Please model this.
Amino acid sequence: MLAEPVAKLVAEKGLIPLTEPQLLAIPRILRGENVLIVAPTGIGKTEAAILPILSLMLEERANVKNGIFLIYITPLRALNRDLVSRISWWASRLDFKLSVRHGDTPSSERRTQSLSPPHILVTTPETFQILLIGSRLRSHLKTVRWIVVDELHELASDKRGSQLSLALERLKKIVGDRIQV
Model:
């Protein structure tokens, strides 16, 4: 199921047994299916999405050394910060670079991201749209294979959801049909 390094970290973190949403989502994501995970707060939705993607990223990194592999979109900057703190444990142990980008990201950090892109980029829908315009960072989007949209219900019912949908279509034009959501 999960790549051995990820499975070992799951055991180290004490996440065994996996929750029902994790048991249902992980195999589907590993098979390349697009998945919508709906479950109560605190049941492990983030891990249900991130663990199989990290497993697949280990394989991808063997072929492509640099570039953004995963874009994780959340509706609020506060969620970005929380998510980065949760994912950083996994990313650091698997030697993946993780970065956050939103309206408050300092220009020095944005420049660093453009010159040496992270493997995992956490952002907001609005900043995601801006990434598609900038020429330097846009070139690094060609390696994106996975998109996770957290708290989708917060975006679906207003113009932010429509804008995100358009941005995802633009990204698809850059990377082709090999993107998994």
